[in-house]
Prior knowledge:
The chain is of the alpha/beta class. The chain is 43% helix and 12% strand.
Amino acid sequence: MTSTGSGGRTPRKRPTRSRGSAPRKRAAKPSGQGGGAAPASGDFAVPESTPPALPPVENFADLGLPAALLKALAAQSVTEPFPIQAATLPNALAGRDVLGRGRTGSGKTLAFGLAVLALTAGKRAEPRAPLALVLVPTRELAQQVTDALTPYATAVNLKLTTVVGGLSITKQASALRRGAEVLVATPGRLADLIERGDCRLGDVGITVLDEADQMADMGFLPQVTKLLKQVRPGGQRLLFSATLDRNIDRLVKQFLTDPVTHSVDPSAASVTTMDHHVLYVADPTDKRAVATRIAAREGRVILFLHTKRSVDRFTKRLLASGVRAAPLHGGRSQPQRNRTLDQFKSGQVTVLVATNVAARGIHVDALDLVVNVDPPKDHKDYLHRGGRTARAGESGSVVTLVLPEEKRDMARLMSDAGITPQTARVTSSDPELARITGAREPSGVAVTMEPAQPQPQRKPKARAKPQSKPQSKPQSKPKAKPAAADKSKPTGSPRKKSPASAQPQRRRTKTTQSDTAAGGNRTRQPRKTDGARRPRRAA
Length: 539
């Protein structure tokens, strides 16, 4: 696609939002041709920027970042920029819209994060009105972005707030009321907060879409489109993704103005430190046995399955076999998911059994094996699952277990991903399986994971207060004793009185007429304090 195609639509769209000022600002900034690779299978032809892109830098000091950010980078032992950072940061810092394609783990978070923080530094947000917005598809990715950027945001005295589903919306609204310059959010929860009046996007000057293809796959495009229409007209947009399919094309044409395009590490095939293995197994029973032995290896591993139910079932199987495993899927609460991830990162849990919810936003250092127990549905899922290993220059392996009926689909998937895997036929006891994955026989001693910690500390305090009230009740008992003493007078009086004298009692106690029919006239009198009234009638 040439720049004419995107340029024909943009002048109609952007002037209505820029109110005349943004085009002049953008035209005056340094610019250039974006470096790009040929589009991968299923990707759209990325637009070429009319002005030339700024050249990549060799170190962070050449970017003109605030001194506090450079100091924070040194403190985090981040010395040299990754390729996608070196290519996109000069243009992002110059105010250009950026379309960046890079595999998971290639350094995209700092590529947009440093630009956001540098451009926002020195500004202060009004309550409920952030200045920069980072949209992500999942809670886990939101947490990862927050963890990665917090040290740098603190260094330049910026408040960073995260809003995601599954956590208290009241606390998130309170954080926005206190003011936050940078907001990391999932589309659904942000839309809820805006509807409640707890957030407005009119002051957002720089917007980031991270893992945009995943947001499209999850059906977030309508929400994302609605949110982008609410940000400040003429603002800067940075879109980063591991793949660029035709759903992303619509976002690019509608919201990005003459973007600088950079395609760095477009697929896992370009990662020389990642090995790809396709292991053919005979049947589902053998596949479960193979996966169990792989899970029993030394070191941590992530196992991917399709459904929440299959994840829970296989986790129970592993625990019964002596493997310290934990499930991770969308059916678990956010505190449970956070706790599971913490246990996995600390090594308390060695096997993470997950659905695709874990394919984005999980960064674990020194994770050298990912296993697709159930093969992914397409090449994009494969890339994102595999992106959990071999991150930031580390080595790792991706193993996929394939049944006979899945062989043809898997071959097509690998072709779309541009990968030529190593293949082998294995059984659970095959030495080749042990060589590739480190598989071994599990201990067979069942493992019980600790439940969530209870928090019942405030309840005893609430029960202690009512105990003082019953002490006042015994004081009223002596007052009831004289009434009991008067019972001796009315108990004998009904025998002397005519039956008509008992009729007023029936009128007062119509709700207990069944008691009267059963001879309950005597039992009713003690309940009603009528001793004082009857002497009047007798008089």
